[in-house]
Amino acid sequence: MVKITFDGIEVEVEEGTTILNAARKIGGEVVPPAMCYYTPLKGSGGKCRACLVKVAAGSAKDPRPMPKLVASCITPVQDGMVVENTTNPDVLATRKGVVEMLLINHPLDCPICDQAGECDLQNFSYEHGTSGTRYEEERRTFEKIDIGPLIQLHMTRCILCYRCVYTADQITEKRVHGVLGRGDAAEIGTYIENVIDNDFSGNVIDVCPVGALTDKTFRFKNRVWFTKPMDAHRDCPKCSGKVVLWMRGNDVMRVTARKDKYNEVQEFICNECRFDHKDPNDWTIEGARKIDRGSVISANHYELPVLNVPVVPNLPGSTEDDLKDTPFNLGRSV
Amino acid sequence: MGRKLLTEHINVEGIQTFDVYRKHGGYASVEKALKTMTPEEVVEEVKASGLRGRGGAGFPTGMKWSFLAKPEGKPRYLVCNADESEPGTFKDRYLMEKLPHLLIEGMITSSFALGARTSYIYIRGELLYVLRILEKAIAEAYANGFLGENILGSGYSLDLHVHPGGGAYICGEETALLESLEGKRGNPRNKPPFPAVWGLYGCPTVVNNVESIATVPWIVTNGAAEYAKIGVGRSTGTKLISAGGNINKPGVYEIELGVPVEEFIYSDEYCGGIWKGRDMKAVIAGGSSVPILPKELILKTAAGEDRLMTYESLSDGGFATGTMLGSGGFFVMDDQTCIVRHTWTLARFYHHESCGQCSPCREGTGWMEKVLHRIEYGHGQMHDIDLLVSVAKQIEGNTICPLGDAAAWPVAAAIRHFRDEFEWHVKHPERATAPGAVYNKADSVLA
In this structure, which topology does domain B339-446 adopt according to CATH? Predict the structure, then answer.
């Protein structure tokens, strides 16, 4: 075990832990944002530069500061390391710069984007960006690429985090898409038009931090904040079958994997669970999903009327009857 | 006349062939190293010579070699970085084209020192004709027993391969080069781990510039002490300088480190002065990535001392008033050169060559290029100049690899030293965009 000081808070972690994960152990406001790093995906991280922090002392043995800001998601801790994140104005200024860079070619089409409300880039720019832009040039756009009937690729929104590439490499059998071109012309594509088609292809939607990869079966159907996430499971021969159903009324609008509070998938799910089971009767519903962070849902406290009896006391009998065959325990004692 | 260590026999007829090269003392270092020295002794010799990496960063080569991890059961690799693509630098191409056997000799001696059994020369894809020259030379070396199994009966075996790149500047960055050599997309890796621990195919690897490797034979043959006598202070030996731009005699010059910059530009032995009898405006001393310096600062340091062609003297004053020796791409601009247009050209290059992996460089290089384009074509505004400085600062130091720095430095330095010229472009767009119009100070005073 090694001990580091992060923003003045001491924390003890296993050797080899990254600075970011040490900060996540502390939790709360001091955790650096991460747009490309993704714990379940090996090799991810280091690209977006959102998590840059200042290492004020390298280690107890060699207390010299590191000359440049380092990416906390890929830099392992050393015993006695002193890290500054929210306490260092340089770090915050640089982060502001990173937001600006990520947004200059972003279409800012949140009002029509399915990801809005649970978008990492949206959160990142609200937390660290400025309200105006200094960018006066024309924004870069891409030709639309068709990658099949289930997944929509909207390259203009992409921030090139490479997560979908790692996902395809690590949890599917064959990767048919990748990054083509270079610089700000780099894009996700299949080179020769190709369908991304395998049992786990849908996971690229979940790992995408922005609205570049969205679910075609959910596209334009609803806004995230109108839907209610419910933990549910089914017996699935291909995957764990543990999912989140995003429901509106009795309808399952979409199915996603369960994510933790850093928006990272806990268990990847198969396409059958994701796309083919939009009937609530296919699922055993466990109850409301608690969303901690990374979604506007967390601001709504929607779960109270669902599960908390006193909030909706004494429902009329007819309403109770209406709800009898639904998965909700609305108004009834649990 | 300075001493020529690398290029002494460069104009000998047929020096590209094994026989002629051998007749002029070629492959002596291989014989000496393999027969009379241990690998550690060769490393020590290179360390003692004070040779610094000739690719741009100037990191001591011997030191780099001694960092190479030597775990049991893993091969080690030497990779020669011949992906010379920096605008203004063309020394490695010249060396490989004229003296292919010198590089091969250096590769054998260096590989022996590092314990590498397979080595690679990663050559820029555009230099296909040089690749053919090298392959021919390598075949000759194999035929004469200097490559392959049991070289010269010493028990040491080495295979040498030449691999062409696909035309990306970024593959000159050592970890991008290794990715590309492995057959992947040439994206720089996150560091650490450094190639000395985790390099080619996950094995310890040393990546050296062509010129660094080509210098090793001379050091081994003649001794580190002899080499260290040449040069000034910690800048020992000779350096190839690719002189270009508005000078009378552009070309590749081998100089002893320590030649005054003024002598290098104006003496007939080297650049031969500014062409057409014009005055000098600015110099880029070490390839397009290093900061540009105006005439006053390239000839004398801020403290008024003569600037010398050494690592230390050129970087005297930091980036405020200094620059870097870099890769030795020495680019002279006369007083008819438009700095704004020149800066835009460089920004366009870096925009085109950014790999697009990390956000500040991917987005920032394009942004700078577009703003500079606007200023150059008469659509700039005063606040654009500060915007450029700010964007450059947002990129610098915040990227995975040094390409971000390389893109930011030229823009920041041009504005630092030639701000009045940028302002003139903004204030007088109709004059700045007129054909052949070039800013001069007197003009700006009148305006």
Answer: de novo design (two linked rop proteins) (1.20.1440)
State whether A79 and A120 are in the same domain: no
What residue of B is the nearest CA neighbor of A91? B398
- CA–CA separation, B446 and B359 (whole Å): 43
Q: Name the pLDDT band for A298 (thresholds 50, 70, 90).
A: low
Cis amide bond preceding B435, omega within 30: no
Residue A331 lies in a domain: no
Is residue A169 packed enough to be buried (19+ CB in 10 Å), middle (13-18) or exposed (0-12)? middle
Tokens describing residue A322:
């209406």
User: Would you place residue A288 in the very low, low, confident or very high pLDDT band (cuts 50, 70, 90)?
Assistant: confident
CB-nearest to A159 from B359, B366, B390 is: B359
Instruction: From chain B, pick out residues whose CB is under 8 angstroms from the CB of A161.
Output: none
Q: Rounded mean pLDDT of B209-234? A: 96
CATH number of the domain encompassing residue A192: 3.30.70
Average pLDDT, chain B: 94
Nearest CA in chain B to A187: B356
Within 8 A of A98 by CB-CB distance, chain B residues are: 359-360, 394, 398
Same-domain check for residues A11 and A92:
yes
**Amino acid making up residue A210:** V
Pairs across A and B, CB distance < 8 A: 92
User: Which pLDDT score, from 0 to 100, does residue A145 have?
Assistant: 86
Distance from CA of B309 to the nearest CA of A (A): 27
Distances (CA, A) of B54 to A190, B156, B367: 40, 27, 31
CATH code reported for the domain at B18-229 = 3.40.50.11540
Separation CA A269–CA B322 (nearest Å): 57
Q: Which of B357, B359, B374 shows the shortest C-beta gap to A102?
A: B359
Indicate whether A118 pLDDT > 60: yes
Q: Nearest chain B Cα to A95, which residue?
A: B394
- Under the banding of pLDDT at 50, 70 and 90, the label for residue A174 is confident
pLDDT tens-digit map of A245-257: 999 988 999 999 9
Residues A21 and A84 in one domain: yes
Q: Closest chain A residue to B357 measured between Cα atoms?
A: A47
Q: What's the complex ipTM?
A: 0.90
Domain B233-332: give its CATH code. 3.10.20.600
A9-13 and A2-6: which strand pairing?
antiparallel
Cβ contact (<8 Å) for B356 and A182?
A: yes
Min Cα–Cα distance to chain A from B404, Å: 11
Which of A68, A134, A140 is closest, CB to CB, to B387?
A134
Instruction: In whole angstroms, give the CA distance from residue B183 to residue A157.
Output: 29
Residue span of the structural domain in which A231 resides: 224-323
Which residues does chain B have within 8 Å of residue A125's beta carbon, measured at their own beta carbons? none
For residues A247 and B238, what is the distance between their CA atoms, to the nearest angstrom? Answer: 73
pLDDT tens-digit profile of B162-192? Answer: 999 998 999 999 999 999 999 999 999 998 8
**Which among B185, B190, B360 is the nearest to A97, CB-wise?**
B360
User: How many angstroms separate the CA of residue B370 from the nearest CA in chain A?
Assistant: 7
